[in-house]
Design goal:
With about 250 residues, the chain is of the alpha/beta class. It is about 40% helix and about 25% strand. It contains 7 helices and 11 strands. Strands 1, 2, 3, 4, 5, 6, 7, 8 and 11 form a 9-stranded mixed sheet that branches. A two-stranded antiparallel ribbon has the order 9-10. It is globular and about 55 Å long.
Length: about 250
């Protein structure tokens, strides 16, 4: 029976960390790596049964690799603080522990709640995420945004879902867009990508059309409209910030 370490990275997640920890109670060890919370995240996590380690922020992928390096066991199940495993997914993990692993990594479908509604279209579902992996065969990658686990070996899908509690308000979504587009623009600049009017103005139009109509965001109702709108805003802000970074660096 393979033992599992559950890892969660946090900063100011007092409102959600207990829920995430409870959903990985099947793990043999739970590690929370906190990067300097100013709320009660650390205390709540410890009361919920996690071992808490403090580590200065290095980036999403790097922070998750630090968490994996602190684990007692080689099999890692990684969860974000604003997520939880459904009961079905938890049962899948318990059944998995009774067997000899047949793959290097395992993924789950992820379902997001946005503006109070579970989203089943808009390109957001099933949104498979590899979250159970052998650290000897894989690690997190991604310098700035869109971090993911890359494993050397077969990947299989387990039953159940990860529930992702995203934005409760449009103001929260806009705030997140400003944070992530700053990182995305820096990543693009390092890759020597260029901005331009097409990226800033034409690409957002296409993103909205693709999300709302081709990916059936219209079936998600009002939240589906705002998902498409914010996806377009994300692209616009990303390219605007890329243009600013290139201009500041004297790149034409």
């Amino acid at each position: 029976m393979p033992a599992i370490t559950a890892t969660i990275i946090t900063r100011d997640e007092a409102a959600s960390i207990a829920r995430a920890i409870q959903s990985v109670s099947f793990a043999d060890e739970i590690i929370v790596v906190d990067s300097g919370s100013t709320d009660s995240t650390v205390e709540v996590a410890r009361r919920a049964g996690a071992r808490v380690e403090i580590h200065a922020w290095e980036g999403f992928a790097a922070q998750k690799n630090v968490a994996a390096s602190l684990a007692t066991y080689d099999w890692i199940v990684s969860l974000d603080a604003d997520e939880e495993f459904t009961p079905e997914a938890q049962e899948s993990m318990k059944r998995w522990k009774a067997l000899e692993p047949a793959a290097a990594g395992y993924r789950f479908a992820r379902r997001a709640q946005y503006l109070g509604r579970w989203i089943l279209h808009s390109g957001w579902y099933p949104d498979y995420k590899l979250r159970l992996y052998d650290r000897r065969a894989g690690e997190w990658q991604g310098a700035y945004v869109h971090e993911s686990v890359a494993v050397r070996g077969k990947v299989e899908t387990l039953a159940g879902e990860i529930l992702h509690y995203t934005c409760d308000s449009l103001a929260d979504h806009k705030k997140r867009i400003e944070f992530y587009t700053e990182l995305a623009a820096k990543e693009m600049a390092e890759r020597k990508q260029r901005g331009g009017l097409a990226g800033r103005f034409l690409a957002p139009v296409w993103i909205f059309f693709n999300t709302f109509f081709l990916r059936l965001g219209i079936l998600d109702g009002v939240p589906g409209f705002w998902i498409a709108w914010m996806a377009a805003r994300y692209v616009n802000r990303k390219y605007a910030k890329l243009s600013r970074i290139l201009s500041e660096a004297g790149v034409r």
